[in-house]
Design brief:
Number of strands: 14
Shape: globular
Strand content: 25-35%
Number of domains: 1
Order of helices and strands: EEEHHEEEEEEEEEEE
CATH topology: Coagulation Factor XIII, Chain A, domain 1
Number of helices: 2
Radius of gyration: 17 Å
CATH class: Mainly Beta
CATH architecture: Distorted Sandwich
Structural class: mainly beta
Oligomer: single chain
Distance between the termini: 22 Å
Largest sheet: 8 strands, mixed
Length: 260
């Protein structure tokens, strides 16, 4: 068992949520890492395979959960924690060439969801994930069927200006059915999608006139969705804007997990 968190503001995504209901227990369907609730910092992870699913998680023995395209999927924080750092959240997906349980995530990834900031990025409460206990997205309805590694990530940017952006990420194993013939894009490799100097990674929220925040990584696939600010950037005067939001959930009742 993990020890209770003792570092204020640190967190870990351990519980899979499907259509607002928890499925399994902690790490039943999410790959458990060896970094527990501690963050990974820019220099340590930006070019490391640990950027995929966190340190020690690549070969974790997790089960695979059956969902449908259009289902709402969430990643809940462990131990009733809340996100208490400013910064954006993302969900990336990568289709496994076969059994996702043996997939190391070295293939192509696309961004299915992002949640940024509405208003000035220097104000913590303007971030869409502030004081939330989970990150949720809707599986794109046009996604091809198959087994997927689904990666959630929150980047805490309060120390990004000194090279210490904090990365919190986990991966769930999902088997998706009822999808379509979409072609997710743009495709990226992880690591390889960021550099330490990217404006959204090395961001300084403490400047006098912060201005805009540029979301790091590729654009959200048009079949995916975004929350908070627009997909590319937010300004001090921006209002909430939805971009490419998918259709509502189909309601995948009776989904079952299977060992993989």
């Amino acid at each position: 068992l993990l020890a209770a968190p003792i570092v204020h503001g640190h967190y870990i995504f351990s519980q899979l949520i499907v259509n607002d209901q928890p499925v399994g227990s902690d790490y039943t369907y999410i790959r458990k890492n060896t970094n527990t609730y501690m963050p990974s910092f820019t220099a340590d992870v930006i070019n490391s395979p640990n950027l995929i699913c966190n340190e020690g998680a690549q070969r974790a023995a997790s089960q695979t959960y059956d969902v449908k395209a259009g289902d709402k999927v969430g990643f809940k924080l462990w131990y009733n924690e809340f996100i208490e750092h400013p910064g954006p959240a993302f969900v990336y997906m990568s289709k496994a060439p076969g059994d996702v349980a043996s997939y190391d995530g070295s293939g192509d990834w696309f961004k299915a969801y992002e949640n940024g900031v509405t208003g000035s990025p220097s104000q913590d409460t303007n971030w869409g994930t502030w004081q939330k206990d989970r990150i949720e997205f809707t599986i794109p309805k046009d996604i091809p069927d198959g087994e997927y590694l689904v990666r959630v990530k929150h980047i805490a940017i309060h120390e990004g200006h000194v090279g210490k952006a904090q990365f919190y990420m986990e991966c769930a194993q999902l088997r998706i059915s009822g999808g379509g013939n979409g072609s997710p894009s743009p495709l990226v490799k992880i690591p390889g999608l960021y550099s330490a100097q990217d404006p959204g990674i090395a961001f300084n929220k403490w400047g006098g006139n912060v201005g805009t925040y540029e979301m790091p990584g590729p654009a959200v696939w048009s079949g995916g969705g975004s929350g908070g600010a627009s997909a590319s950037q937010a300004t001090g005067n921006t209002t909430a804007e939805e971009s490419g939001s998918p259709a509502g959930s189909t309601g995948s009742t009776g989904s079952t997990g299977s060992t993989g």
